[in-house]
Amino acid sequence: MTETDVIIIGAGHNGLTCAAYLAMAGLRVKVVDRRKVVGGAAVTEEFHPGFRNSVAAYTVSLLNPRIIADLRLAEHGLRIVERRAQNFLPAPDGSYLLTGEGRTRQSIARLSERDAARFDGFAHELEVIADVLRQFLLRAPPNVVEGFGAGSIREAVNALGTANILRKLTLEQQRNLLDLFTRSAGEMLDDAFESDLVKALYGFDAIVGNYASPYAAGSAYVMLHHAFGEVNGKKGVWGHAIGGMGAITQAMAKAARGHGVDIVLEASVREVIVERDRAVGVTLDTGETVRAKYVASSVNPKLLYTRLVPPDALPAEFVGRIRNWRNASGTFRMNVALNAPPSFAALPGSGDHLTAGIIIAPGLGYMDRAWQDARAQGWSREPVVEVLIPSTLDDTLCPPGQHVASLFCQHVAPELPGGRSWDDHREEVADLMIATVDQYAPGFAASVIGRQILSPLDLERQFGLLGGDIFHGALTLNQLFSARPMLGHADYRGPLKGLYHCGSGAHPGGGVTGAPGHNAARVILRDHRALFG
Ligand SMILES: Cc1cc2nc3c(=O)[nH]c(=O)nc-3n(C[C@H](O)[C@H](O)[C@H](O)COP(=O)(O)OP(=O)(O)OC[C@H]3O[C@@H](n4cnc5c(N)ncnc54)[C@H](O)[C@@H]3O)c2cc1C
Question: Is the CB of 410 inside a 6 Å radius of any atom of ligand 1?
Answer without folding.
Answer: no
